[in-house]
Amino acid sequence: MKTLIVEDNVAQREHVERMLRDRLPQALPLAAVGDGAQALQRARLERPELLVLDIQLPGLNGIEVARSLWKERPETRIVFWSQFKDEIYIRRLAQIVPAETVYGYVLKSSPDEKLLQAVRAVLCDEQCWLDREVRGVQARALQSPSALTEAEYEALIDISLGLTDRGVARRRYLSRRGAQNRLHSLYTKLSVEREEEPGSMFSPRNRAVFEGLRRGLLNAEVLSEENSLLERWIEENPD
Prior knowledge:
Layout: E1 3-6, H1 10-23, E2 30-33, H2 36-46, E3 50-53, H3 62-72, E4 77-82, H4 87-96, E5 103-107, H5 112-124, E6 129-130, H6 132-142, H7 150-160, H8 165-172, H9 176-189, H10 204-215, H11 220-236
Parallel strand pairs: 1-2, 1-3, 3-4, 4-5, 5-6
Helix pairs in contact: 2-3, 3-4, 4-6, 7-9, 7-10, 8-9
């Protein structure tokens, strides 16, 4: 197998299969599966050169599949094919892409030709290929003055899950002042007014969560994962 298509939507999966068979013989032979666990099993068994990988999948999501595969075979090439361009996915990818590989990221809203270009670039030309809209999100997430550090992003997650200043400090092993400083830095990056500023109308915590949602730094899937991690931490760190 040269290419493994991982997509839970049957119609979309079959569409990509037909397109690659008809228009890109370099991607053959290929196979297709419908969830992340199947993808890992097939990829480990048959070692495809390329995965065309959705991000939101039943069970293991596409980021988790990529993380596992890249740990085992960092040269594996992946084209992410997703309807989402959320900043959180771009941040997570930046943390796990190995130096040894090339990858692509194509939005499902793009024409078929864009997906073919990405697969051809990654598989045949060994070049990264990112959708123009994704490149814009990447620049904001990683390079712009408003890009969050990992500590600031952790603070955003913590307040989104309802933690108080004391809760943030305890979970992140900070003093209360350290937690507040981290939050103030977050508010600055998100252009959120603090309560002590004259004429402020908003709760900075709530406004920061709103800005996080608007920028795609948060979504229901991410918050569900993070809440599970928080609950596990609470169990392991009782008062």
